[in-house]
């Protein structure tokens, strides 16, 4: 009997035979034990034919009870009455009246961004209380957000979701997948899968210079801002926490500005000038940014600062005093002496005139 049978449905049975006649023949039928699903109906038709029928009183549900059995008892009208019994065995036939059901409506799973292609992200499970084809489930992606569908594939039979390529935390921190489970009768269910991508330290810090002053006058005051730059790391957490340092430098230092910005400034020295072109005309600085990941990654940039000359040196003669003897009859216009003076500055600041 199909489980879709409507209450009131009737199923004919073979009646009992009794060799007696009249009131001694079969008079009534009953079932034992009594149940809530079936009753027995019997009687005679207008043409005199007798009938026995099972009457369905309540809808069947194969998922609750797939089989049942009871006795059909025929009783005659004799004294004492005599009876006969036969067994009725009911098999409830399945119809596709149940849709698949996932164990959860929403799944959340975490995956490292460096998980290799082919890694299993999650294995979904949906169940269907129907039997046979009606209970066979296939899985597929129903809908994907953004480019998620290109990064994942699902096994239609096992419900296993795998990576088709490595993920990138910096490109997308989450992927939302919509998975459909469909049974053989066409009924389906949908669940959401949220894949959270976990960051690994796969990005080195970067230094981005916003402004840079070079050449720099050698008479620049201590604290003069030479460069403004920012450090950034696309990773998250400790992997993206960056510290910045200036390698082996006496004349310049780093000063935090705001957030992840730094200033490169000149420093004040006690015994010597902060900048002296005549001693060092070019300064090559190496700025290094280091993150807090494991293993540590770092990035660096080089700045070349040219010191611009200031007129901070007076000309110097080759001698502080020249002594020359001149004859009194020397002709006017004769060369008596040639003196030389030099200036450590450059350009116009080093052009010497004599008087």
From TrEMBL:
Domain spans labelled Cadherin:
1-102, 103-207, 208-317, 318-355
Keyword Nucleus listed? The answer is: no
Query: Which Gene Ontology biological process is one annotated for this entry?
Result: homophilic cell adhesion via plasma membrane adhesion molecules
Molecular function (GO) terms for this protein are:
calcium ion binding
Q: Where are the transmembrane segments?
A: none
Q: Which domain of life is it from?
A: Eukaryota
Q: What is its main location?
A: membrane
**In the UniProt record, does the keyword Magnesium occur?**
no
The record's SMART domains line, in alphabetical order, gives: CA
The entry's cellular-component GO terms read: plasma membrane
Keyword annotations from UniProtKB, A to Z: Calcium, Cell adhesion, Cell membrane, Glycoprotein, Membrane, Repeat, Signal, Transmembrane, Transmembrane helix
Q: What is this protein's name?
A: PCDBF protein
Please name the gene that encodes this protein: Pcdhb15
């Amino acid at each position: 009997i199909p489980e879709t049978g409507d209450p009131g449905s009737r199923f004919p049975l073979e009646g009992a035979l009794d060799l007696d006649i009249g009131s001694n023949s079969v008079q009534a039928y009953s079932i034992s034990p009594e149940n809530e699903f079936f009753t027995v109906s019997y009687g005679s038709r207008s043409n005199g034919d007798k009938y026995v029928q099972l009457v369905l009183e309540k809808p069947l549900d194969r998922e609750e009870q797939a089989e049942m059995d009871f006795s059909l008892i025929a009783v005659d009208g004799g004294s004492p009455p005599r009876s006969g019994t036969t067994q009725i065995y009911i098999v409830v036939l399945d119809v596709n009246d149940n849709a698949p059901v996932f164990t959860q409506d929403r799944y959340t799973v975490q995956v490292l961004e460096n998980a290799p292609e082919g890694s299993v992200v999650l294995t979904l499970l949906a169940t269907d209380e129907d039997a046979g084809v009606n209970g066979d489930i296939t899985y597929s992606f129903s809908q994907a957000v953004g480019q998620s569908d290109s990064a994942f594939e699902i096994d239609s039979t096992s419900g296993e979701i795998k990576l088709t390529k490595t993920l990138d935390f910096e490109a997308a921190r989450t992927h939302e997948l919509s998975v459909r489970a469909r049974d053989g009768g066409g009924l389906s269910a949908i669940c959401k899968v949220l894949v959270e991508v976990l960051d690994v330290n796969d990005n080195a810090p970067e230094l981005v210079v916003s402004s840079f002053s070079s050449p720099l006058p050698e008479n620049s005051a201590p604290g003069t801002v030479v460069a403004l730059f920012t450090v950034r790391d696309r990773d998250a957490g400790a992997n993206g926490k960056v510290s910045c340092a200036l390698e082996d430098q006496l004349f310049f230092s780093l000063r935090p500005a705001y957030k992840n910005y730094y200033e490169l400034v000149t420093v004040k020295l006690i015994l010597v000038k902060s900048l002296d072109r005549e001693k060092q005309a070019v300064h090559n600085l190496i700025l290094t940014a280091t993150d807090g990941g494991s293993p540590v990654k770092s990035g660096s940039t080089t700045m070349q600062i040219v010191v611009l000359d200031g007129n901070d040196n007076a000309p110097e003669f080759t001698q502080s005093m020249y002594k020359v003897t001149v004859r009194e009859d020397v002709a006017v216009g004769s060369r008596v002496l040639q003196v030389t003076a030099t200036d450590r500055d450059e350009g116009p600041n080093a052009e010497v005139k004599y008087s």
